Structure prediction request, 130 residues.
Amino acid sequence: EKTEFYGNIKFGEACIIHPGCSIIAEGGDIIFGDFNIVEEKVKIYNKLKKDDLGRPVKRDMIIGSYNVFEVFSYVESTDIGDLNEFQHRSTVQDSKIENYCQINSCVSVPRGSHLDSFTVVYDDGKMRKN
Prediction:
């Protein structure tokens, strides 16, 4: 399976990118820290945003270190800290994820969320601080 890269993507030290994932930097650069794992069929997408007049607004997407993106997870235009786990088929869009967070399997984080450090998201959008 082919891995898809588009745009300016920067990887830190020792990142592991499995085949068959998509990393698309359409709306600005995607900058990975060190020791991230991106498994197969994951899509990380920095989507192009537009202002009220329809003009493109570019913004970099920053991903910290030691994050794991499991099979079929989808992350769009989200800032991510360190040591987070995005379990298989989880979805996060336009949010801020701090450190040590866990998004459980098949869970969609509500768009625009801010997850404080040590937050667990379960049962499709329910959150608790660990």
In short: The chain is about 0% helix and 45% strand.
